[in-house]
UniProtKB/TrEMBL annotation:
SUPFAM superfamilies the UniProt entry points to: GHMP Kinase, C-terminal domain (SSF55060), Ribosomal protein S5 domain 2-like (SSF54211)
InterPro entries reported in the protein's UniProt record: Galactokinase (IPR000705), Galactokinase_CS (IPR019741), GalKase_N (IPR019539), GHMP_kinase_C_dom (IPR013750), GHMP_kinase_C_sf (IPR036554), GHMP_kinase_N_dom (IPR006204), GHMP_knse_ATP-bd_CS (IPR006203), Mevalonate/galactokinase (IPR006206)
EC number: 2.7.1.6
Gene name for this UniProt entry: galK
Name of the molecule in the record: Galactokinase
Claim: Signal is one of the keywords in the record: no
Entry GO MF terms: ATP binding; galactokinase activity; metal ion binding
Domain (GHMP kinase N-terminal) ranges: 106-181
Organism, scientific name: Novosphingobium arvoryzae
GO biological process: galactose metabolic process
Record's GO cellular component terms: cytosol
Keywords linked to the UniProt accession: ATP-binding, Carbohydrate metabolism, Cytoplasm, Galactose metabolism, Kinase, Magnesium, Metal-binding, Nucleotide-binding, Transferase
Length: 379
């Protein structure tokens, strides 16, 4: 039974009738460009096969009745326009926040019965919250019988739901990647003006997503503090954003040493993202692997968002891949997943070798997800 069919059946069990439809929004893995989206930088995410499904049925009166099928069938109900953020922040924060932020932007959102299911491991760094928000947005918009909103408008509403309803002051990368990305391709996103360009990956490449076994939390993991550090650097450098700063300017300025490291990561990571697009276009796995290694070192040493288990996983994966490809931490940091790009023919060998070399902190089986390039369906 497919994931979509399971979600539909969960709706029927809960509400006693067929849904009007089922929508899906993918998660995303960021190939490179970490913590630069809220600094107006360039990022290179890619949608993945795992995501969020929402079975929906329209109902009048502006009422939302929802069930989270994979969270012990937790329930929530409220009237559109008459609710406040749920505390502490959880899935209900996004459920309530997404239609509210859509309404604030003039996007239609109708009353609905909703059954929600996700296949993204929470705390994995693969944008489960952005996927949830975009899926919810598509469902309540369909319930209002409204034309689909543009990916940019839907992404803006989802970002505001994160900020105002869940307390995570994230950039726009995750939401745009989920709303606008194409399967099997990366999405070059300029976070300064939200311009996008599809960057197809060679069909004989593969992307591996490997869970470290360390679950992360963006609020508890000091994500917001890293953003404040960047804001301090912007003020001290007197630039509109770190996108406008050069490495020479950062190194020459009278900055607190911690703030200098944060700014140095952002400036060099933006440059690495541009170089990664060129490497992909040239089909140069070795060059991309070197960029991945430099990115991970910068996140570990300058931005200080890695943890020992993730460092060990990156080292193991890099060693078994060899020169033709590479690995790096992906996501907000403090745990979560590692991403690798390599030749597709090497996936069985690399996966087997990694299972021999790396153990999660709790001894759980290693979660390795294979995303195919070139627009092919995932395994």
């Amino acid at each position: 039974m497919t994931f979509i069919n399971k979600t539909r059946e969960g709706f029927i069990r809960t509400f006693g009738h067929e849904p009007d439809g089922v929508v899906f929004a993918p998660g995303r893995v960021n190939l490179i460009g970490e913590h630069v989206d809220y600094n107006d930088g360039l990022v290179l995410p890619m949608p993945i096969s795992a995501g969020t499904a929402v079975a929906w049925s329209a109902q009048g009166g502006g009422r939302i009745d929802a069930i989270a099928l994979d969270l012990d069938s937790a329930r929530d109900a409220f009237m559109l326009g008459e609710t406040a953020p749920h505390q502490p922040a959880d899935w209900r924060s996004y459920l309530r926040g997404m239609p509210a932020e859509m309404a604030a932007r003039g996007l239609a959102a109708g009353g609905a019965k909703l059954a929600i299911a996700g296949s993204i491991p929470r705390g994995s760094g693969l944008s489960s919250s952005a996927s949830l928000c975009i899926a919810l947005g598509r469902a309540v918009q369909a319930a209002a019988s409204a034309p689909p909103a543009s990916p940019r408008d839907l992404a803006r509403a989802a970002q505001a739901a994160e900020h105002n309803w869940a307390g995570v002051h994230c950039g726009i990368m995750d939401q745009m990647a989920v709303a606008a990305g194409e399967a099997g391709s990366a999405l070059l996103l300029d976070c300064r003006d939200l311009a996008t360009r599809t960057v197809p990956l060679p069909a004989d490449w593969a992307v591996l997503i490997v869970q470290s076994g360390v679950r992360r939390g963006l609020v508890d993991g000091h994500y917001n503090q890293r953003r404040r550090d960047c804001e301090v650097a912007v003020a001290a450098l007197a630039v509109p954003s770190l996108r406008e700063a050069s490495l020479a300017l950062v190194e020459a300025a009278d900055l607190d040493p911690v703030v200098r490291r944060r700014a140095r990561h952002v400036v060099t990571e933006i440059a690495r993202t541009e170089a990664a697009v060129a490497a992909i276009g040239a089909g140069d796995l070795a060059a991309l692997g070197r960029l991945f290694a430099a990115s991970h070192a910068s996140m570990r040493d300058d931005f200080e968002i890695s943890v020992p288990a993730v460092d060990a996983l990156v080292a193991s994966l890099t060693a078994v891949i060899g020169r033709e490809g590479g690995a790096r931490m992906t996501g907000g940091g403090f745990g979560g997943a590692v991403v690798a790009v390599l030749a597709a023919r090497e996936v069985p060998r690399v996966s087997a070798a990694l299972r021999e070399r790396y153990r999660t902190p709790d001894g759980a089986p290693l979660d390795i997800r294979h995303e195919r390039a070139g627009g092919l369906p995932p395994e």
